[in-house]
Amino acid sequence: xxxxxxxxxxxxxxxxxxxxxxxxxxxxxxxxxxxxxxxxxxxxxxxxxxxxxxxxxxxxxxxxxxxxxxxxxxxxxxxxxxxxxxxxxxxxxxxxxxxxxxxxxxxxxxxxxxxxxxxxxxxxxxxxxxxxxxxxxxxxxxxxxxxxxxxxxxxxxxxxxxxxxxxxxxxxxxxxxxxxxxxxxxxxxxxxxxxxxxxxxxxxxxxxxxxxxxxxxxxxxxxxxxxxxxxxxxxxxxxxxxxxxxxxxxxxxxxxxxxxxxxxxxxxxxxxxxxxxxxxxxxxxxxxxxxxxxxxxxxxxxxxxxxxxxxxxxxxxxxxxxxxxxxxxxxxxxxxxxxxxxxxxxxxxxxxxxxxxxxxxxxxxxxxxxxxxxxxxxxxxxxxxxxxxxxxxxxxxxxxxxxx
Length: 404
Fold this sequence. Notes:
This protein has 404 residues and is of the alpha/beta class. It has three domains: 2-183, Lysozyme-like (3-Layer(aba) Sandwich), CATH 3.40.80.10; 206-315, no CATH class; 342-401, PGBD-like superfamily/PGBD (Muramoyl-pentapeptide Carboxypeptidase, domain 1, Orthogonal Bundle), CATH 1.10.101.10. It has 13 helices and eight strands. The protein has a six-stranded mixed beta sheet. The protein has a two-stranded parallel ribbon with strand order 7-8. It is elongated, with a radius of gyration of 29 Å.
């Protein structure tokens, strides 16, 4: 392992020359999962460890104990060198960039970055990742082959089996190339800002979006075109804005705006102009009782408002919860909560061996052949990260993706 030790010594020496602190985990020089040939210079594989965002180190201790990567990087950007030998990080995948199928463990360097997969990387963490990958490329003689810096999701097969790291790897490679150019004194354009990794927030519940503001207009006044007469209130005042916004969202909720179904859409902008007038006319023609006979179908008066409010309340009322039904027995070839036996044990063992970081969010997996709540959480997490239907049932698609 002397060659690999020398290589990683050069990598961390270069990092330190750039001002990055690197911690050497005791025993890294001899830590390996197996003997035999190992070339750390053919591929660099970036992972995230799927750890809960409550700790800075993430799964570092587990990674070291189980020999899962040569390096770890904490949320705050601390770089640690953990092993100079083969680590179990890549799994089933490839071939990719000349590395044969299922052989990346013995032909690559890996880093596990503390990240849940649904949180942004800190600037310090991003800086450390880019610097480490740049140092690897320089010492490996790969500065003209930055495509060899890959994400686990790019190595793993079938495509979609892995989702880490949750970052645009094209951006990451561009950042590494720019960093190398900067350190070598060559001009290079700054990389584009990293795409935000904060998960898109779930849409606000319709009940929040459609909270009813008070009707504050004087008698004879109405909601209507923003450029109309004084009696027409189209969104120039604070009170007007709230009422117009509610009316627009109500028109969406009631199916009166073609191409729009989400009341939270930016179509609803609190300004009553031509598109809102068209939606109001559709509401009169299709939803308002006796609406077709009304002479003011491009306006909303107080009595129209009251009808609109009542219709929205009825349309968005939650459906009664269905009566609980006993769980149906799992069809042949499907495993679900309540299933027991050897097949469940194989499922648990496969999940535990391949995705140890799930324990941080799903609890410890016990391989006992009993498909209980914890096993269901692991199955759901695997399905979510693999792009499968998330139902907690291990059917043919889920079992096939696991190779079972």
